[in-house]
Amino acid sequence: MKWSISYHEDHSSFRNLKREKELQMDNDKLRSVAKAIVANDKGILAADESSPTIKKRFDSIKVESTEQNRRRYREILFTTEGIERHIGGVILFDETLRQSTMDGIPFARLLSDKGIVPGIKVDKGAKALALYPGEKITEGLDSLRDRLIEYRELGAQFAKWRAVIEIDEHNVPSPFGIRANAHALARYAALCQEEDLVPIVEPEVLMDSSHGIERCEDITSRVLETVFSELDAHRVLFEGMLLKPNMVIAGKQCVRQNSVQEVAESTIRCMNRYVPAAVPGIVFLSGGQSAEDATVHLNAMNTMGPHPWQVSFSYGRALQAPVLAAWKGLESNVDVAQQVLLKRCRLNGLARNGKYSRDMEPGS
Ligand code: 13P
């Protein structure tokens, strides 16, 4: 937690001085966890699919979404040898944080023992924003403080909250929709820091519609500007958080798709304008890009460095889609699936330093 008691408020109280020292230590811990997650060649594996989302992923490979299959799949991911060289943090879902390996080692401990920081998705999903047709607001603030305390006891050291911003051809998102989501993100982030968890702040501008890259840049700019203004008003310590934004990219239905360089330049311009240098890392989401595109774009942004923040990844689909396709729910495919995961982690670890090239892709 960040704010310190000013001497003007109570300069005579020894107790306040002691508390100030404690708060400083809390801040140091937040800072060092945030930095560790994005150290050197590292990024984040987002494995926090909610039950409906993991069902969709399993449906695509015709695997039933049972508790047992979900546990086994996550075990395959987390026990992959060598991922710790490129993965600094893993985001878990509530169910997964309570699960263990076949040998009874809780996943959070397994990850910590490998030097990977365990994290937890704490939002309860995006729901319709009342009286604002076409817009969403993320829920989950009620009782969040209690849940954070429990998650910390279960081994989580960071958390994630995703706000969803849709774009249409007209007035969506509205300034109010952006503000409401930014406010919720900031309330979540402040609660996390109060409970000594590093907040990952994820305002995702979706790439599902037909907008061009200019509109994505405009909306992403408004969103980031509002998010950081709310975070500041809520006294969130920028040094003790990570930002997880979308890249600036045309919608999937847009007829004009941009070059890698255009995406990288628009994204970095937007981040330079709106993300304070005090934030230790920007960990991009993949948002529906192919695994290869997400890596290529990350690499291009890093070749434009140095940047004030680490420019890294927090990919869900871009790390896992090829793994699911290799696994298909079969034990006989586990080795191959783990090799595929390790390869994707390694390639993103290189891209995160601008050292990737397409000819490193399997089959090229
Ligand atoms: P994608 O990389 O699949 O967008 O997922 C990242 C994530 O955590 C979304 O909340």
Write the layout of secondary structure elements.
Elements lengths: L13 H24 L5 E4 L4 H9 L7 H12 L8 E6 L1 H4 L9 H7 L3 E5 L4 E3 L7 E3 L5 H10 L4 E8 L9 H20 L3 E8 L7 H21 L8 E2 L16 H15 L6 E4 L6 H13 L6 E6 L1 H11 L6 H18 L13
Helix pairs in contact: 7-8, 8-9, 9-10, 10-11, 10-12, 11-12
Bound molecules: 1,3-dihydroxyacetonephosphate (13P).
Please explain how this structure is put together.
This protein has 364 residues and is α/β, with parallel strands linked by helices. The protein has a single domain, classed as Aldolase class I (TIM Barrel, Alpha-Beta Barrel), CATH 3.20.20. It has an eight-stranded parallel β-barrel with strand order 1-2-3-6-7-8-9-10, surrounded by eight helices. A hairpin with a 7-residue loop joins strand 4 and strand 5. It binds 1,3-dihydroxyacetonephosphate.
Strand order, largest beta sheet: 1-2-3-6-7-8-9-10
Largest sheet: 8 strands, parallel, barrel
Oligomeric organization of the protein chains: single chain
CATH topology: TIM Barrel
Estimate the global geometry from the Cα principal axes: globular
N-to-C CA distance: 48 Å
- Count of runs of 4 or more consecutive helical residues: 12
Q: What are the distinct ligands in this entry?
A: 1,3-dihydroxyacetonephosphate
Using only C-alpha atoms, the radius of gyration works out to 20 Å
Chain-averaged pLDDT: 95
